[in-house]
Amino acid sequence: MVTSTLPQEKEVKDFMPINGTDYVELYVGNSKQAAHFYKTAFGFQSFAYAGLETGLKDRESYVVIQDKIRLILTSPLRSGTEIGKHIDTHGDGIKVVALWVEDARYAYETAVARGAKSYMDPKVEKDEHGQVVRAGIYTYGETVHIFVERKDYNGTFLPGFKKWETPDYNPAPTGLKYVDHMVGNVGWDRMNHWVEFYENVMGFKNILSFDDEDISTEYTALMSKVMSNGNGRIKFPINEPAEGKKKSQVEEYLDFYEGEGVQHVAVATNDIIKTVRDLRSRGVEFLRVPDTYYEAVTDRVGQIDEDIAPLKELGILVDRDDEGYLLQIFTRPVEPRPTMFFEIIQRKGAQSFGKGNFKALFEAIEREQELRGTLH
């Protein structure tokens, strides 16, 4: 049964203020090709680079940017590195969810004092443009949060990176604006552990909860709780498997990722029809729901600004809550393993996560699992 906690119902002091998502770092097998993919398919722009030319000997990183979204794509340059071991175990995937804060030392020391495991002690990084302070903690699996303090820095990205420009090849942006939320998949009976971690260590609140009655089909089920920081700029839904007749998408993820990790990144747009049409023209593949889904959309969600025809053509889903409505669509996995994918979302007032679409969406995922032979 879905439950929600509105901010005014539960006053909690925000002891760890977070300004927003600073960057997301993926460990990938080939950073150069991955950067080309995100530019070509998703419309990201060349931004910054670090590697042999900047003095690194063990890894190479390309940074791509679109509006407020920054992705770092990092690959090892030698065998036997921690980055390489991570890729060998998990495949390409998200290692770092970096959080922009005013005081990285305070955030780190507070988190560690409240029970977080240290990933990186506070470190001051300097160049001619000023200094950045970074420090990190572990969260679920091998995923980490790095606190980034950049109030004394006016360079391109971070010290150690140089500006990366590609004058001959810069595909246009696709209208992606910022990270709306990021979903983590955790193991059996581990959801509440990580809910308590975010509550106790980082001061987040549980704003929505979905049980296996809300998120289930004839064959599979999962449970989810949505964690949000004090100002609502960071939202981390946390999923765990639930008992079902067949293997759920979370179980499939855990099997192929070989552990807990980030399942998907939801990125916002102001015009989902235009964005999805553009992404499809560039080869991005999306999950599809049956056309019958659209026969009852207006009965279920009421009047919306958009025509149903383009939504049906593109496979965009619609849902409504007390605040308004939202439109959303999910890509197929963007890596060889059936693990990480992206959600494209446009909010027209709604603050929820598409509960009314869960059944249609998860049935679409099950059809993909059936094709992969991983549903049973």
Automatic annotation (TrEMBL):
Keywords: Dioxygenase, Iron, Metal-binding, Oxidoreductase, Repeat
GO molecular function: 4-hydroxyphenylpyruvate dioxygenase activity
Domain of life: Bacteria
InterPro entries reported for this sequence: 4OHPhenylPyrv_dOase, 4OHPhenylPyrv_dOase_C, 4OHPhenylPyrv_dOase_N, Glyas_Bleomycin-R_OHBP_Dase, Glyas_Fos-R_dOase_dom, VOC_core
Residues annotated as domain VOC: 20-150, 178-332
Cofactor(s) the protein requires to work: Fe cation
Signal sequence annotation: none
Entry EC number(s): 1.13.11.27
Pfam families: Glyoxalase (PF00903)
Family: Belongs to the 4HPPD family.
Name of this protein: 4-hydroxyphenylpyruvate dioxygenase
Organism, scientific name: Croceivirga thetidis
Origin organism lineage: Bacteria, Pseudomonadati, Bacteroidota, Flavobacteriia, Flavobacteriales
